[in-house]
Amino acid sequence: MMTLYFLNNLMHYNKQPDYLYDNNIRVDYRQIEFIFGNNYEARNDVISCMTDKRKISASPNLNVFFDINAYKDGRFINEGLYYLGLLTFSESPDTFIIPNLVTYDMVISFFERINNYQPDSYTLSRIIEPYKMKGDVAGFISIFFEKVIKSFPGDFFKNANESFYHGLMYHLLNSTFDKGRFEVYPEFNVPGGTCDLMLRSLPGAKVQTKIRDIFELKCVPKSASNAEFETIFKECKRQLAQYKTGQYNDWRGVAVCFRGNKDYKIETMN
């Protein structure tokens, strides 16, 4: 369906769609909640794994008979997510993967939903405004931290990993930046390795500020000492410096390290 949607737009308007999927194909969150049933522990583990690695180790039994009690018990979560299209086969017979970035965005949306973070479009536009209009990435990170990260409950950050921050930031930028003028990619390959996030304004696009940024994001527990915090931040900057080579040498690098929802450090490399 997504392929036909893309080709239809290309045929009639000679360009790719502003949004790469039709909202009508998005999975209803009630369907996902039904699959998880009352098994909240398994739900949290699965969602955390999917957002962290974009894959999940499983021994799928796709020749199963689903019944209402099995769903209530959360016995066929992986299989149910497979039939919804949120997981698919990988090269490994015991691993399911998230098939594409559209599906990954859906998973992040559901993750936000179960953690009671559901901002309206006005809030989202205000968060990215200084970045989109002026290229003020430090201002964006400040608002992102205050309005998004701090909205999650404090005890959540006992086990929050880097992918929590990666996923939220990718979802926010991907859902608010105009696809006809900007592109956003998570886990983007550059000559020096794989940066956590890449955002750039497309060549020739009419934008107020041209942006070419690569991000490296790290985190430490909320309880981390200042010394631990500084050590990880130095590692973040070291990795980012490796990425700014070749054609990305003149791109802006953005190193950010979060200490739970307590504070953060940021440094840009021009």
Structural features, described:
The protein is globular, with a radius of gyration of 20 Å. A 5-stranded mixed β-sheet has the order 4-5-6-7-8, sandwiched between helices. Helix 7 packs antiparallel against helix 8. It has 10 helices and 8 strands. The mean pLDDT is 84. The chain has 2 domains: 113 residues, no CATH class; 149 residues, Alpha-Beta Complex (tt1808, chain A). By secondary structure, the protein is an alpha+beta fold.
Structural class: alpha+beta
Percent strand: 15-25%
Poorly predicted runs of 5 or more residues: none
Characterize the largest beta sheet: strand count, sense, and whether it forms a barrel.
5 strands, mixed
CATH topology of the largest domain: tt1808, chain A
Would you tell me the overall average pLDDT?
84
Classify the oligomer: single chain
Summarize the amount of helix as a percent range: 40-55%
Shape: globular
Indicate the radius of gyration in whole angstroms.
Answer: 20 Å
Q: What is the element string, with H for helices and E for strands?
A: HHHEHHEEHHHHEEEHEE
Spatial order of the strands in the main sheet?
Answer: 4-5-6-7-8
Number of helices: 10
